Amino acid sequence: MEDNLMIIDPHVHMSSRTTDDYEAMQQAGVVAIIEPSFWLGQPRTQVGSFQDYFSSLVGWEPFRASQFGIKHYCTIGLNSKEANNEALAEQVVELLPLYLHKENVVAIGEIGYDDQTPAEDKYFRMQLELAKELDMTVQVHTPHRDKKAGTIKSMEVCLEHGLDPANVIIDHNNEETVKEVLDRGFIAAFTIYPKTKMGNERMVEVVRKFGSDNIIVDSSADWGVSDPLAVPKTASLMLKRGISREDVVKTCYQNALDAFSKNGRMKEEHWLAPKGIDQSQLFNDNSVLRGQTPRIDSEQIS
User: Fold this and answer.
1) Which segments within the chain are labelled E, that is strand?
2) Which of 59, 70, 184, 241 is buried most deeply by CB count within 10 Å?
3) Domains recognised in the chain with CATH numbers
4) Is pTM, for the whole model, over 0.85?
């Protein structure tokens, strides 16, 4: 990034993206990412599918990110859409404690509501209780339909279960929800899409109006039309539109670090003192190279 900012994207589904995306993100200043567990585009039919997916978020994907100089963290949870298969949801919830203690898991998420059904409500509440029991940060997915009512309901349920609003990130906000989220003491995250929902021009005006406290910018880039460079692009646009560098750093780096580092697993030292990229390394005898010459930053490797 031309402004030499360090960027954290705290909501990006890299399992759906390519190595080109990792390279572009690293070149744009992204030093760390958080990958929430989520819906894969079609319903899973067996608990083993969730188990393999969660295992990739704590195993293969952190390795893949490291091969391009990016530190990878994740959040683990049962997404709202698949909470509606109750027989399967019961098995997934039982599985969660096995993963929530892994070294790169920084929160329970993304959980919440999709269609705001009774089953979604049941498993959202169960996972909030788990978060309270384990003293973990929560990353909440708010519904794209009936957005304002769903966002308010999400916050009220968190409060009902005794969670500290300062330890809950309410994601997928827009101009309609941000004031309510901030006024209640929650952290407001914004997903920046290239064409729909929340765009970066609108994000600039949100920061101009509401400031940078408790506001986070993310991309939510996944298998759909989305942009893994949404955060660095938004940071650059904010600077061009006259937002102070301090506010850009807070919304595109520091606030995410503060919000997701509370369990001690996400640390700035992980990327401030990098060991350098070594693509000769293997994960379970596998590499990302497909026969290409590995990049080895030999001058930085001890």
Assistant:
1) 7-9, 30-36, 71-76, 105-112, 138-141, 168-171, 187-191, 215-218
2) 70
3) 7-265 (3.20.20.140)
4) yes
